[in-house]
Structure formats: C-alpha cells, structure tokens
Fold this protein.
Amino acid sequence: MTSPPAPPPPPDDGPDDGGDADAPGPVPTEHALLTRFKTALDAVLRAVCVTLFALLVLLVTWQVFTRLVLDAPSVWSEEAARYVFVWVSLIGVSIATGEKADVAIDYFVLKAPLAAQRVLEIVAYLSTLTFAVVVMVWGGWTNAHQTWDQANPVLPVSAGALYLAVPVAGVLFAFYLLHHLAGTLSRRYAGVEHTAPEEGVEL
C-alpha cells in the first residue's frame, strides 16, 4: 500500500511589506547629511539660547534688586549681563538665519521668474557668505585674539571672551548660508521661501 503524495509547497508571494531586513537602505546624499547635521545643530543652539536668556534675566533682575532695594548696585552683574546679551543676540540671529526668518525685502524677488529667483538667491548668499567669512570669522577672530590677554576688572574672564562671540557667530552664519546655497543649487529648488513675520522662530 503506497502512502499519499505530499502536498505541494505554498506559492512564494515574495517579500513581505517590510522588505528584507538585511537589505541595505538608500544611501543618504550629501544634502541629506547636511540637513541632519543642521537639525541637530538647531536643537543645540536653541537650548544654549534659552539657557543664556534665562541667565540674562537673572542677572538683570539681580542688578535691579541691588540698585533699587539694597541701594548698592552690583558692578559684576551689569558687566556679566553685557557679555551674555552679546552672546545670546548673535546666537539668536544665527538661529534666525538658519530658519530663513531674518529680515529680507523679497517682494520683487517673489514676482520674478524661477530662474531669476535662483540667480538672485545665489548672489545674496555668496555676498553674505563673504561678509561672514571675511568680517566676522577672520576679523572677529583677529580682534578676539588681540584682546584675549586683556583682563576684565570685575569678571574672571578676559575681554576676548566677549569678542569671541563674533567669529563663532560667523562660523554659524557660514554653515547656514552654505546649507541654503546647496538647497538653491539643487534640482528640487522651488523658488524663494517666504517666511511671514507672524510665524517667527520657534525656540
């Protein structure tokens, strides 16, 4: 007596919806890597900016308290508030540049054809990038280096720590401008991005 034949194997429906787990994913492009780094940098700068702003509020509050309540103005808190104000201002402007929320008169640019918008944006980014590299990075670093040994009479930091904010902001400006320039030169360029004043920058 012979045994019944074995059932046929089930048909191969191919890989499931999730695909092969071992299959390599798409290789990220340089612009995608730049965008990832920008996202991480934005988060760090926002945290630094919020921290410095909170410190600025504390310093100014203490300055007002010692002046009006104690009748003995604090000298060091006024000088420290000046340092913090310069740093938080330049970092805040850097964040605005990264979000394209800086002041721009783009009415006529938005009316121009797409090719003209691309050319105008390239010229604007290259001009601003030149200013950031030459004036802020090179000039700011030179000034900070020359004043680094200049002692502050009321703070345990030198005057160079104040001027160091300029080249640091210049490097941030340069990075954000290069990121925007890469987007302008890409094939996915869709024209000038307009940011309404009421939108602002989210921290």
